[in-house]
Hints:
The protein is an alpha+beta fold. The protein has eight helices and nine strands.
Amino acid sequence: MASQSxxxxxxxxxxxxxxxxxxxxxxxxxxxxxxxVRSALVRLCENGILIRVAQGIYYYxxxxxxxxxxxxxxxxxxxxxxxxxxxxVRIAPTGAFALYQLGLTTQIPANVVFITDGxxxxxxxxxxxxxxxxxxxxxxxxxxxxxxxxxxVTALREIGENNxxxxxxxxxxxxxxxxxxxxxxHDIQLAPxxxxxxxxxx
Length: 202
């Protein structure tokens, strides 16, 4: 039966992959019809091999063997980056999520916004949570050599020119220690003037 062979082929590919890998129906397009692939993915979820994290997005779960807490769910970043890789587009976190990633806030927004040079879309993940991809034509965001500096600039712009506290700046400067001088020299020229002044003040 074709669907059984599709199921076995997909199961073998999943189980030979690293745990934590995200899969999409398109991943298995060469293994059967779209209906056969979809049916195989449903069965793999029913059998506990895959977890469906959103419509059309499946996860081969990492398992916590150290503390025995079971499945480690994928992070928002991992899901967003998986979608970006599949669609061959670039993404960058914005707003409150940039603050969270840098440790400038402990609150994760329910709806995380990324800008992208690809198509706009919304992915629903669980109840009331989601990822929003907003198209941007401002390519400067993707011109940074260091993703960390791009994140810092985004976070500072979210906080606002006159609202950055000393403790926030201390955290930012700790992150900057991980950036090479060459990357810093290139990327600082892309930042707004007030951000440039903030980051270069001793």
